[in-house]
């Protein structure tokens, strides 16, 4: 005899087995912006660039890493954030320039850790200490710099200004060159580098942009 299930029972099973969308189905955490839940897409050992598929929430291959650029930290985004009008206005205010729009993606985050994490598609707890305000073809494209909660080495740092200069230089070099093609003009521009308090401001604005979206 075949088992019969109600619509409610089937719906409960489907929901229990469904994966939450990393952008929409997970929150930044109750302690945001001081402590964040971050979704990691890429790790330093990756030879291809992964990014979230906005429709399905699954990780997809964006492109192979054709050149020698290797991401120097864990890299992903902060759930339920969006770089829209508010982020563009904030970038315009901080730089004194007219920046018409954000890049239309969730807010990016780099997470520093001494641990070897071998793959992305994971969640972790990260504490922001600063950020880079990048301009990508006229669009505001902030990168929040954070440390992994409880990390044996990086958890001691509370602000970007405290990091070793070599660590900041490595991150800066990556973001200024990772989109460059041979014999082509530089695509990315680093407008400002900021500390923890301004990082909080950027995160809260991106959360507001998400709510408006």
TrEMBL record:
<protein>
    <recommendedName>
        <fullName>Inorganic pyrophosphatase</fullName>
        <ecNumber>3.6.1.1</ecNumber>
    </recommendedName>
</protein>
<feature type="binding site">
    <location>
        <position position="103"/>
    </location>
    <ligand>
        <name>Mg(2+) 1</name>
    </ligand>
</feature>
<feature type="binding site">
    <location>
        <position position="108"/>
    </location>
    <ligand>
        <name>Mg(2+) 2</name>
    </ligand>
</feature>
<dbReference type="InterPro" id="IPR036649">
    <property type="entry name" value="Pyrophosphatase_sf"/>
</dbReference>
<feature type="binding site">
    <location>
        <position position="63"/>
    </location>
    <ligand>
        <name>substrate</name>
    </ligand>
</feature>
<comment type="similarity">
    <text>Belongs to the PPase family.</text>
</comment>
<keyword id="KW-0378">Hydrolase</keyword>
<feature type="binding site">
    <location>
        <position position="75"/>
    </location>
    <ligand>
        <name>substrate</name>
    </ligand>
</feature>
<keyword id="KW-0460">Magnesium</keyword>
<dbReference type="Pfam" id="PF00719">
    <property type="entry name" value="Pyrophosphatase"/>
</dbReference>
<feature type="binding site">
    <location>
        <position position="141"/>
    </location>
    <ligand>
        <name>Mg(2+) 1</name>
    </ligand>
</feature>
<comment type="subunit">
    <text>Homohexamer.</text>
</comment>
<dbReference type="InterPro" id="IPR008162">
    <property type="entry name" value="Pyrophosphatase"/>
</dbReference>
<dbReference type="GO" id="GO:0004427">
    <property type="term" value="F:inorganic diphosphate phosphatase activity"/>
</dbReference>
<comment type="function">
    <text>Catalyzes the hydrolysis of inorganic pyrophosphate (PPi) forming two phosphate ions.</text>
</comment>
<feature type="binding site">
    <location>
        <position position="108"/>
    </location>
    <ligand>
        <name>Mg(2+) 1</name>
    </ligand>
</feature>
<feature type="binding site">
    <location>
        <position position="178"/>
    </location>
    <ligand>
        <name>substrate</name>
    </ligand>
</feature>
<keyword id="KW-0963">Cytoplasm</keyword>
<feature type="binding site">
    <location>
        <position position="49"/>
    </location>
    <ligand>
        <name>substrate</name>
    </ligand>
</feature>
<keyword id="KW-0479">Metal-binding</keyword>
């Amino acid at each position: 005899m075949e088992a019969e299930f109600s619509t409610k029972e089937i719906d409960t099973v489907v929901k229990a087995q469904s994966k939450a969308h990393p952008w929409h189905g997970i929150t930044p955490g109750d302690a945001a912006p001081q402590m964040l839940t971050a979704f990691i897409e890429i790790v330093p050992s990756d030879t291809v660039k992964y990014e979230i598929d906005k429709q399905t929430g699954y990780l997809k291959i964006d492109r192979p890493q054709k050149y020698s650029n290797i991401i120097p930290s864990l890299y992903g985004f902060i759930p339920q954030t969006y770089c829209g009008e508010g982020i563009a206005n904030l970038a315009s205010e901080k730089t004194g320039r007219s920046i018409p729009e954000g890049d239309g993606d969730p807010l990016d985050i780099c997470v520093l850790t001494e641990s070897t994490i071998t793959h992305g598609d994971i969640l972790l707890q990260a504490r922001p200490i600063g950020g880079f305000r990048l301009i990508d073809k006229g669009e505001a494209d902030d990168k929040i710099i954070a440390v992994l909660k409880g990390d044996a080495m990086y958890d001691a740092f509370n602000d970007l200004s405290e990091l070793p200069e070599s660590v900041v230089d490595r991150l800066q070099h990556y973001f200024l060159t990772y989109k460059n093609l041979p014999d082509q003009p530089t695509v990315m521009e680093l407008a400002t580098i900021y500390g923890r308090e301004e990082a909080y401001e950027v995160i809260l604005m991106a959360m507001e942009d998400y709510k408006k979206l």
